[in-house]
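Q: Here's a chain of 428 amino acids. Please give me its 3D structure as tokens.
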Amino acid sequence: MKKDFLGKLEERKKAPISIGLIGLGQMGRGFFAQTAYVPYVKVNAICDVDLQKAIKNLESIGLNIDEISIVNNVSDAEGAIANGKIVLTDDSSIVTKIGSIEIILEATGVPSVAAYNAFSAIQNGKHIVLLTVEADVVVGRILRKMAESAGVVYTVAYGDEPGVTKELYDSVVSLGFKVIAAGKGKNNPLRFEATPEELANEAQTKKMNPRMLCSFVDGTKTAIEMTALSNATGLVPDIRGMHGPECSWNELPKVFDLKKNGGILLRPGVVDYCRGIAPGVFVIATTEDMIIREELEYLNMGNGPNYLFYRPYHLTSLETLVSIYKAVIYGEPTIVPLYKPFSETIAIAKRDLKTGEVIDGIGGFTVYGTIERHDISTQSKFVPISLTEGATVLKDISKGSPITFADVKLKDNLLLNLYRLQEALNFE
């Protein structure tokens, strides 16, 4: 953060940053709990489709029911906030239209819903922070453009791996190092065919949505996160799906090296993941300068020529406040896609799909996502997985096959319309 950061935060004690939170699941609940210890912000409005569950979550955090006001219109919401209440609604458009709200945190995890909420926030002059990276990887470029045109900030949240890794990447690049690879650890066993049904008990134990857990296990979430990092940096997957080796943190510089040097990579400048270092994130970089290498060896960074820059943790929604501060205080995003796309998370059939079936999307029974270079995806007409929920299968698709636009009829919604507009425009 900038040197005057704490001073500027102190100024917000008298008038805390007013936040609208959409989605009170695992991530939203954790974020809200964290704000209780921070005098610079205030969650004034919350939206969740399940009001009773939301009330239980708020009570579990320690909120008294008398502090909550359930509303169904903007006027009542603004009146309740003026009287010191926290507004609760099942209509997200109410939250994005409240005049006193400065910034929206989108935490639903559903790409079509997140796209709508981000669009509405921007249209109403609010900064928007996405915990739902599933929306960013498919329509992030057009949302960024709309936000810049509206004079507000659009950003993916700090705390999740893309934002934390991007910070590490920026630091390494700014020092003049050449990046060979950047990525994250994966802590779930990879099973492409995993379903939310078979993971229901584990999800309950972990207090997670089974579909969310399924998206972790089947690799979709990792692919989406690395797609976001790729599109924000210009790094690309070395191969479809990435390599995903199993190794310890101190092995990373040798594993993520070119094949000619005994590593696994065909090229430098890639995104990837590793099983064995979760919840950490990493950047592998090099330099040809012998004086710098001597200095790095003196600093116990290893013998080179590859060096590991490593953060052994990420705190997901507990660190999202960093994005809130950057957006509101400095008008800066944490991580946004470049206007030239580099990667796509494409949909792969988990099982044989029959004509007439309806695809259930991320974390479901029918498809999983894997990362592919954007140019290959475009040429092959592969469908981004974030667009697949509600799509109808037009012809039989065999298990393990990438799904193309000719294979399905996509559900017509704002997400799809934004995607089509984005692809038709030339932002470069």
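Q: Can you summarize the key feature?
A: The chain has a mean pLDDT of 96.
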